[in-house]
Amino acid sequence: MPDLIRTDPAIIALAAILIALAGITAATATFTWVRQRRQEAASLSAIDFVRASFASRLAHGEPMDKLLPEAVAALRDSLKLDEAQLWLSEGGSLSLAVSDPRREAPRISLLPNVDTIAANARVSGRPWAKVWLPELLPDRHDAALRVAPITFSGQLLGLIMIERTGHEERLAAEADVTLEELAREVGAALKKERLDGALRDSMEQLRGQAQDLQASRARIVAAADAERRRIERDLHDGAQQYLVAIAVKAGLVQQLAERDPSRSRALLDELASDTQSALDELRNLAHGIYPPLLSSAGLREAIAAACRRAALPTELEAADLRRYAPQLEAAVYFCCLEALQNAAKYAGKGASARVKLWEEEGGLLFEVRDDGVGFDATQSNPGVGLTNMSDRLGAVGGRLSIESEPGKGTQIKGAVPLADDQETSSRSSVADRA
After folding, report:
1. How many angstroms separate the Cα of 255 from the Cα of each of 183, 247, 259, 262, 267?
2. Sign of the C-alpha dihedral, residues 52, 53, 57, 63?
3. Are the C-beta atoms of residues 63 and 54 closer than 8 Å to each other?
4. Which tens digits make up the pLDDT trace of 93-141?
């Protein structure tokens, strides 16, 4: 019986080894399971932050500059990273928007087509970054590195870069899924934020344009009223007085025709002179309203006549000009006339001027330059004359610019767009007036 219960030492040793192996296997499985659960928890922590907290808070109006640091911090804490960075792409360059821990970094200029390459890349490591974005690489060459592009509809919006001590394969296994999800959610949020910003800018621009248009219309109405008052005053003080004098003298001639022929002839001479003066006054008045030469001969001849009448020596350069729509010719003519009048007032003694007219790329352009005393255009507010010029050009879709410096004269430039049918409509208008 004792022989039956005797145990071989070799069998006992084998059993002990098997039990130990089973324990090691169980412990290894438990450790692997725990590590996987921790990795999954870390991934879910960062992703859940973006899916839940980040997206909902962004939808409720919280600014991106507050949410992005929290997303980067959650990423670093969840994956036990040494550093996490978020770069934004705009205007052909990358700028570091958020870094945990905080650091300063210069703006990185992207080489041609690199943004397209990065936008189509997957989450990559140090070899990819070394080829395409070496400026991103940290000083620590032993650190594991992963770079995830932030894209939307094939457009590169930025990059997420993480760094951790250890093997890159292990970091890739733990972080790539999280980075892809995070980059996708952040990309959609960034695109929405940029679109919202562009919409706000467009709305502000439209509001500004509407206010400018309203103010311009008010100034045009006021200027039209002032012009009508000026015409009425000029008629009353000028041509009307000549006509009254003509009527009085004509009555005297009738009375003196038989009694005092010599006196009657003298009055007739005065009547002829007064009639000529009245005609001259009416021509000058009509010229100020709309010059007949502009209607009959066109812009070049009308500006040439204005240059000859200018108060300071003025040269004209105008070649290959055709007839344009009446409203365009009038806008350019009166702007040039206003610019010459301003030069006569402010350019100073001994100054001269030069007017240039030309057509270029679907636009009619003009330039009035003087070599006078000039002024600081950045510090001076536009006067009534310059404002009227800008309003006149704006009414036909044109634009005005002013360049001047003390001692370097003044240059006024303007342009109005041309339509394909303007020449035909201009010819028809000329024919109607003829």
Report:
1. 104, 13, 8, 13, 11
2. negative
3. no
4. 898 988 888 888 778 888 888 888 888 889 998 889 888 888 888 776 7
Q: How far is the C-alpha of 117 from the C-alpha of 424, rounded, in Å?
A: 52
Strand order from edge to edge, sheet including 83-90: 108-109, 93-100, 83-90, 155-165, 143-152
Instruction: For residue 205, give both structure tokens.
Output: 């621009």
Give 158-184 pLDDT, tens digit per residue: 999 999 888 888 888 888 888 888 888
Question: Residue 339: which of 286, 417, 403, 416 has the closest Cα?
Answer: 403
| 201 contact partners, CB below 8 Å, separation of at least 6 | none
Which CATH number applies to 34-201: 3.20.20.210, 3.20.20.70, 3.30.450.40, 3.20.20.370? 3.30.450.40
DSSP, res 111: P
Q: At what angle do helices 326-346 and 299-309 cross, to 10 degrees?
A: 20
3-state DSSP assignment of residue 234: helix
